């Protein structure tokens, strides 16, 4: 199988478990998050993929998820490229706050707007559009050329950096992409045409 791109959101992190806005902070995976990463690796192994390059963010939870997956695949030799462009959305002043405490401080409606709008950023942070503005050029210049050359590529990253990629790959509108939920540790397998459009998409959720 050629021209294959796999996207995986990191497994559950300690701050996911505590219901905190994580952003660019760097908590580790929980035990459940590790299990999710192992399961992602097992599902990809069953799917029979062999990778030429792996990409991940500068954040530990994504790097650790990738490491667990590649160990499950017996493909620890695959080169890993880390880049800040794939980091989670920066939540600015919300970072580190419990989501319920944020609602108490700013109001449920305002926090919902910050979390679920496409182009409205929380104070000091990034909107999904801002996140896309760094993710899309990196994809076009660094990830896509490897896929189109026939490499199978895996990207282990975050809910919002991957949403930005999925928006471009699936041709989704701003309203459609903010409604998308990405499961932790669930691989999404794309097979691309030679012109970079999507030929096939498979979600390995079982």
TrEMBL record:
Catalytic residues as annotated in Swiss-Prot or TrEMBL: 10, 88
Role, per record: Catalyzes the interconversion of 2-phosphoglycerate and 3-phosphoglycerate.
EC number: 5.4.2.11
Enzyme class: isomerase
Pathway membership, UniProt: Carbohydrate degradation; glycolysis; pyruvate from D-glyceraldehyde 3-phosphate: step 3/5
Species name: Aureimonas endophytica
Reaction(s) this enzyme catalyzes, per UniProt: (2R)-2-phosphoglycerate = (2R)-3-phosphoglycerate
One function term, GO molecular function aspect: phosphoglycerate mutase activity
Protein name: 2,3-bisphosphoglycerate-dependent phosphoglycerate mutase
């Amino acid at each position: 199988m050629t021209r294959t791109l796999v996207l995986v959101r990191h497994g559950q992190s300690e701050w996911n478990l505590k219901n905190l806005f994580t952003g660019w902070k760097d908590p580790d995976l929980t035990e459940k998050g590790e299990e999710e990463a192992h399961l992602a690796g097992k599902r990809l192994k069953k799917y029979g993929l062999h990778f030429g390059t792996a990409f991940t963010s500068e954040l530990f939870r994504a790097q650790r998820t990738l490491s667990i997956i590649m160990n499950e695949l017996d493909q620890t030799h695959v080169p890993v490229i880390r880049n800040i462009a794939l980091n989670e959305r920066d939540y600015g002043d919300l970072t580190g706050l419990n989501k319920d405490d944020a609602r108490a401080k700013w109001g449920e409606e305002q926090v919902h707007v910050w979390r679920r709008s496409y182009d409205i950023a929380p104070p000091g942070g990034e909107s999904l559009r801002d996140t896309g503005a760094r993710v899309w050029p990196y994809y076009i210049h660094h990830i896509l050329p490897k896929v189109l050359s026939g490499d199978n590529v895996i990207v282990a990253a975050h809910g919002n950096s991957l949403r930005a990629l999925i928006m471009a790959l699936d041709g989704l509108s701003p309203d459609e992409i903010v409604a998308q939920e990405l499961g932790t540790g669930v691989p999404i397998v794309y097979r691309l045409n030679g012109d970079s459009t999507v030929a096939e998409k498979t979600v390995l959720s079982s």
